[in-house]
UniProtKB/TrEMBL annotation:
The keyword Ion transport appears for this protein: yes
Protein name as catalogued: Copper transport protein
Pfam families to which the protein is assigned, alphabetical: Ctr
Ion transport keyword on record: yes
Organism superkingdom: Eukaryota
InterPro entries documented for this protein: Cop_transporter (IPR007274)
UniProt family annotation: Belongs to the copper transporter (Ctr) (TC 1.A.56) family. SLC31A subfamily.
Chief location of this protein within or outside the cell: membrane
Compartments reported by the entry: Membrane
């Protein structure tokens, strides 16, 4: 017969002296509920970039260019970037393919930001901002044009 000392309820986690079952030790989680600053994180893949500062810098550059190229692909799929005389089916196929690739890049950026690392977040923001300014900003479209 079991005595009441040996029966431990599942919600009682403070009384460890009377527990007879083995417990797994608490594993620290890499998922943070708030932004944190540091180079020891996981971005997109398990174990990457790890605790190496050089790999963390590479991860930031990778996220930056993912966001940058997502803006470029948005610009490439615009209607004015396709030849006017092209077949309508070819236009639709081209724009659909560009949208699919852009969506993939954008979702990878979102997954990287979900790491809650502040550096990754800033790399994504700066990549999108610079890509927008270079490829879709009005300031660069009128360069070289003389008004008046």
């Amino acid at each position: 017969m079991l005595s009441s000392k040996n029966v431990v309820a599942a919600w009682n986690t403070t009384n460890t002296t009377t527990q007879t079952q083995t417990q797994t030790p608490h594993r620290p989680s890499l998922l943070h509920p708030t932004f944190y600053w540091g180079y020891n994180c996981q971005v997109l893949f398990s174990g990457w970039p790890g605790s190496d500062r050089g790999m963390y810098a590479l991860a930031l550059i990778f996220v930056f260019f993912l966001a940058f190229f997502a803006e470029w692909l948005t610009r490439c799929s615009d209607a004015d970037s396709i030849k006017p005389g092209a077949d309508k089916l070819a236009k639709v196929a081209f724009r659909t393919a560009m949208f699919a690739v852009k969506s993939g890049f954008s979702y990878l950026v979102i997954l990287a930001v979900v790491s809650f690392n502040g550096g990754v977040f800033l790399a994504a923001i700066f990549g999108h901002a610079l890509g927008f300014a270079v490829f879709r900003g009005r300031a660069f479209r009128n360069v070289g044009r003389v008004d008046g």
